[in-house]
Amino acid sequence: QKYGVNELRRMFLEFFESKEHLAMKSFSLVPHNDKSLLLINSGMAPLKPYFTGQEIPPKKRVTTCQKCIRTGDIENVGKTARHGTFFEMLGNFSFGDYFKKEAIAWTWEFLTEVVGLDPDRLYPSVYEDDDEAWDIWNKDIGIPEERIFRFGKEDNFWEHGSGPCGPCSEVYYDRGEKYGCGKPGCTVGCDCDRYMEIWNNVFTQFDNDGHNHYTELEQKNIDTGMGLERLACIVQDVESMFDIDTLHALREHVCRLAGVEYGKDYDTDVSIRVITDHIRSVTFMVSDGIMPSNSGRGYVLRRLLRRACRHGRLLGIQGEFLVTLATTVIEGSKDGYPELEEKKDFIFKVITKEEEQFNKTIDQGLSILAGMEAEMEKKGEKVLSGEEAFRLYDTYGFPVDLTKEILEEKGMQIDEEGFQAAAKAQRDTSKGTFGEHSYSGTDATVYDEIDPSVTSRFVGYETLTHESKI
Ligand code: ATP
Ligand code: MG
Ligand code: MG
Ligand code: MG
To answer: How far, in Å, are 6, 15, 43, 105, 116 from residue 3 at the CA level?
Structure first.
């Protein structure tokens, strides 16, 4: 039995409903009342007020399938089988209700009985000092001791400065030797794609006073997260998350547009996967009201969209293509996210505008950058000057990360300080009129005709260094 993505999502939520959980809709990608986070990156993130006790949850047991964005994984995307900038996280949560014993038992029951995964391929890990969780896996569930891994703080302790924190227990699935890196010592916890981490159970049981003094929390919580795409990848027994039913359709659409075949050439495949991933992020972000801009969330959106455009060029796609891919994203995901269908026209308009804009300059920009590279090679230089990098940004709309990335492929980099200085000089000279003449400054207003109420204002470069690191 090979369940589809939409089926697996339903099975998960229904399973936890049968365990008395309240199934809640995915929250928006835009965090609510939370300045610490640019975009929602886990099932737990939008539920934080329930964990801290700031707000009362509608029920002590909640389950969700949460849309997530992790730009921190962007370098992995297209290269590993298991990372997307966009993915869906399934989760079950307990706010001072059940704890480790139930959480672990249900994790196991769902994976082995509901989904029917082979228990012999599953490996749990626990935090090295967490004998309680180890005992539950060993004695209650019956996993032999040599199959339970103990990992240190880095992998298996969830902590964010001060406040509630605690040990984790993860579940890995052995996908078989063919996915292994073949290095000696390749086992659970290896970075390769053989032992795929699918589910993380976080047991928030301590409070860190900020000086690493831990006290037991009175109200202990459970916070779990399982990547829906990873689960589907394993259930459907396919090579990567880009081969699961919903993403396969999207991936093939990319191939059709580019007139290329998947699985023939590594670099081509990377570009196909990057586009497949990024258009999902873009479509979902726009559906949550995020507009392209030069700072904050809008910059993340712009960066992903333009990065996808550039990979389209690498595949030989000319002209606009992203908006037609968005139709396939919506088709594949509207089951779980009806808002996609409802906001279809709006999504198309925003993507079309942004793509049209970048298309006007991308080819010229790419060829100028290629010229800069050639010049640098000739002179034996490795660092592109800040002014030149800024010119690409300002005149051709190249997000600085994109320039950086293209150069890095050739072992080069940009002078980031110089870039900031050039940006500052631009700000200082153009003052109030900034935006009228430069390419990157004009674009905030082009969205006014679509929906002025959601247009994000252009706020300049202040936050660029910070934002470009997320
Ligand atoms: P990994 O070590 O593989 O990068 P992680 O430990 O960073 O994963 P968690 O923060 O524990 O992941 O998130 C919980 C679950 O969400 C993971 O076990 C995985 O199934 C899923 N997940 C995390 N990051 C991604 C991603 N970039 N793309 C798809 N699924 C993800
Ligand atoms: Mg990770
Ligand atoms: Mg991990
Ligand atoms: Mg993890």
So the answer is: 8, 15, 22, 22, 10
Q: Residue whose CA is closest, atom 19 of ligand 1?
A: 227
CA of 349 to the centre of ligand 2 (A): 33
Q: Measuring from atom 22 of ligand 1, which residue has the nearest CA?
A: 227
In a shared domain, residues 368 and 436: yes
> What confidence category does residue 438 fall into, taking pLDDT thresholds of 50, 70 and 90?
very low
CATH of the domain at 32: 3.30.930.10
Same structural domain, 433 and 376: yes
* Interval 453-457 mean pLDDT: 39
23 lies in the same domain as 120: yes
Mutate to test the pocket of ligand 1, among 90, 230, 233, 278 (most ligand atoms within 8 A of CB): 230
293 CB contacts (<8 Å, ≥6 apart)? 299, 301, 302, 443, 444, 456, 457, 458, 459
In angstroms, the Cα distances linking 241 to 237, 238, 247 are 10, 8, 7
CA 76 to ligand 1: nearest atom: 27
Atom 30 in ligand 1: residue holding the nearest Cα: 227
Ligand 1: which atom is nearest the Cα of residue 77?
27
Tell whether ipTM is more than 0.95.
Answer: yes
Encoded tokens for 349 = 């308009």
Domain co-membership, 155 together with 276: no
Report the C-alpha gap between 68 and 219 in whole angstroms: 27
Q: Which atom of ligand 1 is nearest to the CA of 155?
A: 6
Give pLDDT, residue 334.
Answer: 94
Ligand 3 centre to CA of 197 (Å) is: 6
Ligand 1 centre to CA of 326 (Å) is 24
Instruction: Please give the Cα distance from 172 to 428 (Å, whole number).
Output: 53
The answer as to whether 296 is a domain residue is: yes
Residue numbers of the domain that contains 90? 5-235
Higher pLDDT, 449 or 438: 449
Helix and strand numbers (H, E) in the chain are 17, 11
The pocket around ligand 1, CB under 6 angstroms, is made up of 70, 73, 82-84, 87, 89, 197-200, 225-227, 229-230
User: Residue 241: inside a domain, yes or no?
Assistant: no
Counted domains in the chain:
2
